Amino acid sequence: MSQRHPSVAPELERGDSNGDVLQHMVDHPDPDRGTVHTPGEIAQQPEMWRQTARLVRDRAPALKRFLEAAGLYFDEIPSRILLTGAGTSHYVGLSVVDLLRRRFDTPCESRPTTRITPNPDLFFREGEPTLMVHFARSGNSPESKAVLEGGLECMGEAGRHLVITCNSDGTLAELARAHPDRVHLLVLPDDTNDQGLAMTSSCTSMVVASQALAHLGRMDAFVHQTDRTAEIEETDHLSVFAYDAEGAVPALQQTNVAVLIGQMAGLFAAYRRGVNVDEPSVEKALYNRTVQGVQIYDPSGACAENSGEHR
Predict the structure, then answer these.
(1) Helix and strand tally (H, E) in the chain?
(2) What is the average pLDDT across 185-194?
């Protein structure tokens, strides 16, 4: 039977709020239990969302010019969109694929790099205008590099690439800088580059950045909405969130609320079982549980182009 850490066990037994237990882990990092990085990286996510939204707002004019050059604002036949990433980064694409499909009124699909790499002919269509969006935490996985290289070679001038990564020094970022004519690089705040094994801040911050692509003309409203979501996350107990997320959190960002709750559930389950959270090995599947492609559908059209604001 797994032993609970003596200083945390009483809180778990009393059923105190998830936030209290998480804060205890943040305040008392334990290398033996592997809680040096992951609890803090979960807890910091609301602030990372704020910083990411402001970063994209600052970059919005350049991003919009790039998307225009990529053919996404064409009235007749806009470019298709292909989202890609490895592992959890692929889930980022799954979380926003319908939003981008609706916003740009064009075919949009999300495929893992591990599927594209062995089958490039199925995804790289020479001469067909395409925007590829590459998601990566470190940007150092060989398949991520191979997909960008393959897209640049096979799609030629018809392809444009947006790299969203958390690591300015990664291989993918370096490759993007080497092709400024066809690749736009968006590096998120340094603290989103998680040091723990599980992707936490990196995942949800890339979701925020990619959601912002659909709102480049209304970034002040998007930043305000992100601030509101972050404020609720920091002041309310997550049990309240889970009960009334629909009423408390803007529809667009309920995805990140669901992912954050899932991350905390995995963190606490791993901790109870004595699994090293930062570097799980034999039992790594326990913490690597993730919310795949969570989407809260809003029939009222919270992100409608003509709404002028976010509900």
Answers:
(1) 14, 5
(2) 96
Asked whether the predicted pLDDT for residue 57 surpasses 80, the reply is yes
In terms of phi and psi (left: phi > 0; alpha: psi -120 to 50; beta: otherwise), the region of 141 is beta
Quickly state the pLDDT bin for 274 (edges 50, 70, 90): confident
Whole-number pLDDT of residue 237: 52
Which residues are 164's β-sheet partners? 135, 186
DSSP string, 115-173: HHTT-HHHH--TTS-EEEEEEESSS--HHHHHHHHHHHHHHGGGEEEEEEES-TTSHHH
- Which one, of 176, 185, 110, 177, lies nearest residue 145 by Cα? 176
User: What are the tokens at 245?
Assistant: 């997320």
Residue type, position 48, single letter: M
Strand partners, 161: 132, 183
At what angle are helices 18-27 and 238-248 packed, to 10 degrees? Answer: 120
Check if the beta carbon of residue 103 is closer than 8 Å to that of residue 305. yes
Residues whose CB falls within 8 Å of the CB of residue 121, separated by 6 or more in sequence, listed in order: none
Looking at the DSSP assignment, which residues form a beta bridge with residue 222? none
